[in-house]
Amino acid sequence: MDDTLPNLVDHAVKVFLNAVELADAELRVPNSKPIWYSKYNFLSLLNLRDTIKHLGLPRWYWEGGPAGEGILRVVKPLVSGGLRPGWAEPAHRAYCARMAIGQVRRFSNCATDSYDGDSDRDEDDEFVDNAHPTSFEDLLLSKFILRDCRAYPSFDKARWQMRNGRPLCGVVVRDNRMFIAVKSRHDLSFHEVIVADRTDTKLRMGMTYYPFTILPTSIEASGLPQCEDCCLLLPFDFSTALDEMASAYYSVISKDWKELCPDGVFRLC
């Protein structure tokens, strides 16, 4: 990789840190350390240029799951009393115990035998009756949506988000079709998000942006094809409620960091 993109990123980082310093200088207590100096997240941004030069774009690296920093959201509640001497061993034991219990419950839910009313299963445990595949699929769909994808309060709110250059999230179904979830009175409805013109694209920092629109017609959750992934729509430009954009250009990234390519397929472009 040449120095063009790393230098551009480094320039953007320094502009950002300068903006943080200007804001923090007006708010911090006199004689205290600047926030960018006392927070590792800010200081580590200064290493981004060299990181990109040696390892490539960091957007290909996923650290949100158990294999990365995302595991902290599970471990932190298990660390009682702060990071005192000897905290690691009890936290590790508690995490292993919770993981083992979760595996047992998942095995129990996947069992093919019918539910026994005399079972010692806790009433609070999740149970799926495999004799009713429709309810099983609905449960998976609802968990998939609620965990990984935001449901918007109304179609108008979702449309406002897009027309004003705000990020959106959605689901990817068969044939790489994308939908956003909208809350209805008793369930979720889904509106398809389509590219208005695949030949009309913009390129910024190696990512391709397309003019998107949200179709006003919706389908119910029961009519949605099988969900294959979640996605995040990232805007090319931000706007305001008083200045709607003529066309909303977005780049789309799936949960496993695949990008929507010009041929309509998600892959590591």
How do the strands and helices of this protein lay out in sequence?
Layout: H1 4-25, H2 35-38, H3 40-44, H4 48-55, H5 72-75, H6 88-109, H7 133-148, E1 151-152, H8 155-163, E2 168-173, E3 178-183, E4 188-195, E5 202-204, E6 207-220, E7 227-235, E8 248-254, E9 259-260, E10 266-267
Helix pairs in contact: 1-4
Molecular structure report:
Mean pLDDT is 77; it is low at 111-140. Among the domains are: 4-56; 148-267, no CATH class. A six-stranded antiparallel β-barrel has the order 2-3-4-6-8-7. A two-stranded antiparallel sheet has the order 9-10. 33% of the residues lie in helices and 22% in strands. With 269 residues, it is α+β, with helices and mostly antiparallel strands. It is globular.
Question: How would you describe this structure in keywords?
Answer:
269 residues; alpha+beta; six-stranded antiparallel barrel; two-stranded antiparallel sheet; 8 helices; 10 strands
Uncertain residue ranges: 111-140
Q: Class by helix and strand content?
A: alpha+beta
Q: Total number of β-strand segments?
A: 10
Question: If you average the pLDDT, what whole number results?
Answer: 77
Biggest sheet character: 6 strands, antiparallel, barrel
Give the SSE string. Answer: HHHHHHHEHEEEEEEEEE
Instruction: Give the N-to-C terminal Cα separation.
Output: 15 Å
Order of strands, widest sheet: 2-3-4-6-8-7
Given the structure, what is the number of helices?
Answer: 8
Shape: globular
Strand content: 15-25%
**Helix fraction?**
25-40%
Over the alpha carbons, how many angstroms does the gyration radius reach? 23 Å
